[in-house]
Amino acid sequence: MHREDFVILANDLVYFDNAATSLKPKTVIAKMDEYYNSYGVNIKRGDYDLSFKADNEYENVRSLVKDFIKAANTNEIVFTSGVTESLNLIVNGYFKDKLKVNDEILLTKSEHASNILPWFRLSKEKDLNINYIPLDNNYEVTLDNVKKAITPNTKVISIAHVTNVIGDVRPLKEIVKYAHSLGILVVVDAAQSIPHMAVDVQDLNVDFLVFSAHKMCGPTGVGVLYGKEILLEEVSPLNLGGGLNESFTSDGKYTLKSLPYRLEAGTPNIAGVIGLGAAIKYLNNIGIDKINDYVSSLKTYLVNRLSSIPYVKLVNSNGSSGIIAFNIEGIFSQDVAFYLNKYHICVRAGNHCAKILKDEIGIANTVRISLYFYNTKEEIDYFVSLISDKNKILKEMLP
Amino acid sequence: MNDEIRRETILEYNTHPFNKQTIDDDTYIKVNSNNESCIDNINLYIKIENDIIKDFYFDGEACAITTSATSIMIKSLLGKRISEVLDFITNYENMINELPYNKKILGEANVYDEIYKQQNRKRCALLPYIGLRKAILEYQNNR
Question: Which residues in chain B touch residue A365, judged by CB atoms under 8 angstroms apart?
Fold first, then answer.
């Protein structure tokens, strides 16, 4: 769908690496161009019209994000550079002050590095414990397994909504409900879910939720930290500087602005935020449910086609997300990726930043295909035809 | 060298790697070499005595280029003196980086003489040699 919106797709290209980043439609690029060309000045300086315009455009995006994820108000939307910064801010700006020796953090082994390493460091600094929710036979998270993993010391559960290798959709609402009944907070990495499905933070009742613009047709270098206002009020900014202070005096005293500004130090990625706004409008116009349905059907088609090839070993064929990980027996995943690259098919090979997932699935490296709404059945047919002849792969995978 | 020989040699060493075995022995220097931008990850196990490579193995997970290049490296350098080894490495690196090199020294490793055409595969071909340089440095520092 909507292939004509992407200049890059006019090239001879099959892009199957959407979990890494999505392509950008003309409208997003044009909106950012417009900022740089027509009103490319700093925000929060109402002294002249251009700045007023930039400020308006920037703040309008906060409203768009609020509506997109159904947050209660715009104070709950903080712009960051992406999921990594958002998670580091939550871990070091909030939980660092709240957690005490022997408190426990629950993760899973299929989390992305950005939802693991900040916790590793904090657990070392503060003598905390990290435990992993066991995955079921399909490498998915069930509420039962969450219940089993929780101990009296568990204080926070930090998990992806959809994971980036297995692609399973976690039963967030049930997990959050159960966690809250025990006073446990829930942090959600929505990087892989936001581009594909409607996310309602109030319905899910999550405490913190983070995502990046670049996986949802927006630009790189910008993302969102959502937090319930009552929690965000207690997050300390990791960076201090301009933009977030209300006043400071030579005796070393300073006061910070109110939310959300007190968590956004320095000149932000203004063009990026404005681009994110255009991306949200773009996705809304297509319809996020329509995207979800289309990608699900495409994934089912891909799974069916791949299942008919005996030497293709699928790691996950269940989930409704557009992510498939597989290996071709006897050929290293990276060699498969290099082979496909000769036919201008972009896939990812490796561990996909989920380096402890191998403890669970017993495989360190896989080929990953991640679909989005601009992918087609014809592209899948072309891809399948190329991997249907193992000798051809062996013959052509070398430089 | 023609493409067919290049391809067959690389595939043969990929399917049947030379001295691919994990060694658990403190008399071997163990070094890891991995590719930050991709996923190749190999360990080298080298026994050096009196400046001579007496024994040499590897294990790990890697693509066809890295696996074959490591196999050929080990086969070519087993029993060689450190000075010869360093000379071999320098010529090999020059070949990969399109600098003048001595073809005669490299023997079977000449199959990678056109890898420069695929910039993203250069690192795969160099990976085992990065590990070997580390191991030699470790040997020299501990002498």
Answer: 39, 61
Cα nearest neighbour of A355 on chain B = B39
For residue B57, the surrounding DSSP H or E stretch is: strand B52-61
pLDDT average per 10 residues of sequence, chain A (399 residues): 95 94 98 97 86 94 98 96 97 96 95 94 96 90 95 97 87 97 97 96 98 98 97 94 86 90 94 98 97 95 94 84 91 91 92 71 83 97 94 86
Residue of B39, B43, B119 to mutate, testing the A interface (most A Cβ within 10 Å of its Cβ): B39
Q: What letter does residue A4 receive in the DSSP assignment?
A: G
Q: Which of A231, A265, A309, A353 is catalytic?
A: A353
Using CB atoms within 10 Å of the CB of residue A100, give its burial: 0 to 12 exposed, 13 to 18 middle, 19+ buried.
Answer: exposed
- Give CA angle at A215 (A212, A218), nearest 5°: 80
Indicate the helix (H) or strand (E) that contains B69.
helix B64-77
Classify the complex by whether its ipTM is higher than 0.95, answering yes or no.
no
At A328, is the secondary structure helix, strand, or coil? strand
For A10, counting Cβ atoms within 10 Å of its Cβ (0-12 exposed, 13-18 middle, 19+ buried), the class is exposed
